[in-house]
Design goal:
It is built from eight helices and nine strands. The protein is α/β, with parallel strands linked by helices. It has a single domain, classed as 3-Layer(aba) Sandwich (Rossmann fold).
Length: 221
């Protein structure tokens, strides 16, 4: 309320960092962050879609790198590029990596901005993955979120976007939503009608009407 003109993203960062600095911790960011299933989940799904060690891979919404170390370890040096909303998140992520892994693999970490998105596209990433991020995006920022992912795709690229799937938009917590797959496919079509959008399950079944799903976006070579 003190900053009515500030963007939602700034509010989200403030809420998360306030919890961390007060000692409450946060399940997705910082020292108390833990994977929902296992730390190698990012790598496992990318391997399922054909990831090779030399593929430039963008981790869009990487947070404090709670899922990144196995992927960074698999990729060749300099082929992992993490992006998130705030330098605070990225600094916590660097602290999460071992010095040996950071030195050997030279991951790149950047705060999301228009010029960063443009540089990423120019680097021609093979994969873009956004995992446990989509649920944090409110409806009025959703086109911008999907638009950034699509903007980094060049012919031959694949993007994987995890989301909690429900029949209609549904709040899960104060800062998290489940949404229908039609919201993703519509946003992708608005961003680039040449991208094919398909869906698959992260895990089978549903809990309280919510499925853990992911969108598979492809742009033909």
């Amino acid at each position: 309320m003190s900053h009515p003109a500030a963007p939602y993203e700034q509010y989200y960062v403030h809420r998360v960092m306030s919890k961390i600095r007060s000692g409450q911790g946060h399940p997705a960011i910082g020292p108390t962050a833990r994977p929902l299933r296992n730390e190698s989940e990012l790598l496992e799904f990318l391997l399922k879609h054909g990831l090779q060690p030399g593929d430039l891979t963008i981790d869009y919404g990487c947070g404090s790198l709670r899922l990144a170390p196995p992927l960074i370890g698999f990729l060749e040096p300099g082929r992992y590029w993490g992006m998130d909303l705030a330098q605070d998140f990225l600094d916590l992520g660097r602290a999460h990596l071992s010095a040996e892994l950071a030195q050997a693999k030279r991951p790149r970490l950047d705060v999301i901005a228009d010029d960063v998105i443009q540089r990423a596209r120019a680097a021609v990433p093979r994969f873009i993955i956004s995992w446990h991020v989509c649920s944090k995006v409110p409806e009025n920022r959703f086109d911008a979120y999907i638009g950034n992912i699509v903007a980094m795709m060049t012919p031959g690229a694949t993007a994987l976007v995890h989301f909690p799937e429900a029949a209609e938009m549904r709040k899960q917590t104060g800062l998290a939503w489940a949404r229908p797959r039609s919201q993703l496919s519509s946003a992708v079509a608005r961003a680039n009608p040449n991208i094919v959008c398909k869906f698959d399950a992260v895990v089978p079944g549903e809990v309280n009407g919510i499925r853990q799903s992911y969108a598979i976006l492809t742009l033909a070579a």
